[in-house]
Every structure is written in C-alpha cells, then in structure tokens.
Design goal:
The protein has 99 residues and is an all-alpha fold. The chain has five helices and no strands.
Length: 99
C-alpha cells in the first residue's frame, strides 16, 4: 500500500483551499479514505493512479465536510469501476499463468 505523503496532503490542501494549520487532521482523513477505498476497490497506488487519487480526494472532501454518508451513493459508479478493473486485472493475471 502506498503512503500518504506530505506532497499528497499539500495537493489536497491546495485543491480544497485550506490553511496549513489543518495538516494533521487532513493527513488522518486522507489515510482513512485511502484505507477504506483500498478495502473496497483493491490495492491501488495513490501516487501513480490518478483515478484512485481522485476518489480518495473526493471521499476526503466529503469526510472533511461531515457528509461522508453521501459519498458512497454519489460515487458508486466510480467505486464499482475501480473494483471491476481490479477484478479483471486479477482474472487476466490468472489466465496468463495458465498459458
């Protein structure tokens, strides 16, 4: 699993137009979002997968604004697409091994 770096926190802060005094809280929110989405969608690297990063940022935005209960409904298609892509990747990996 990739680590939430200060660069990721800074990128999220810039996107959300936030001050530096919220670093600790944002780091916690970003880590929780990443861990939750990895649990649901599979192991993606936030540093190399822009779609996954976007979803982590969106979940973090909802968490920051105390509206997390709406995230899963509003982003169900995105979550399912990542989950499906990871499942297809696993299937393709299995079929390559049998050739």
């Amino acid at each position: 699993m990739s680590v939430i770096t200060q660069e990721i926190v800074d990128e999220f802060m810039l996107r959300m137009h936030l001050d530096d005094d919220e670093d600790g809280n944002l780091l916690r929110i970003l880590k929780a979002s990443q861990n939750d989405l990895i649990r649901i969608c599979g192991d993606y690297d936030i540093n190399s997968d822009e779609v996954f990063k976007e979803l982590v940022f969106e979940r973090s935005r909802y968490a920051y604004n105390d509206a997390l209960e709406y995230f899963y409904t509003n982003f169900l298609t995105h979550i399912n697409n990542l989950n499906l892509a990871k499942a297809l990747e696993a299937i393709e990996g299995d079929s390559d091994a049998t050739i």
